[in-house]
Amino acid sequence: MGNIKGLVLCGGPGIRLRPITYYFQKTMIPIGPKQKPMLEYVVRLLRFHGIRDVSFLVNYKAEQIVNYFDDGSRFSVNISYIYDENTLKGTAGSVLTAFRKGKIDMNDTFLVYYGDILTNMNLQSLQRYHENKRASTTVALASGFTVRVGLADLDEEGRIRGFVEKPTLEKPVSIGILILNGEVFEDIEKLAGKKHRLDLMKDVIPYLIKVGRPMYGYLSEAFWYDTGSIEAYEKLDPRLVDETLSYLF
Asked: Between these two residues, 177 and 236, which has the higher pLDDT value?
């Protein structure tokens, strides 16, 4: 397999995790029995699967991340920091910043990882799939996602026929991990234009499909958990973290 760079999004203010994020960068919130920062689990997962060249896209409370991880040598990885000045907001805006600052180029393959996602996904298997499909972009997907709210079934007059509390979705959902080839930056630059905000999943992925870039979904049954809200963080069982991810330590 070819070399792949890791690009971790960890600059957001974590509004859904307030008031905790008034004091912590959201990816630095401690989890599990070891009370290690969430971002350490991400770094260890990347290293476990051979991704040692890692860039952090930072902004809000960046000092906490830099002070803890430094150059990454303590974790046997090479970490660089890209300060996101918010000229173009959104996840794709952050990734574009990395390109414009020369941290990744058109010849690179890079794995984008949303820093508030916990998983034990086999990233090498994801990379193999990406290469075998000759994809320009591969999005990691999972099925069986439980919606955190109840869904109502209404008739034409608005009468409720039935109600399903926290249903499980049949269709696969994106889990905040994707692989892109550097060539897509041509498209992202075109799409960016004079926009003020650009998101990967909402804007870039539909655009890449529209212009005919080969796009694939990698369906995984791995454990994954989005810790991006107070409710999700409170419900995260420390024993589950230990059982699922202790092999990284």
From this structure: 177
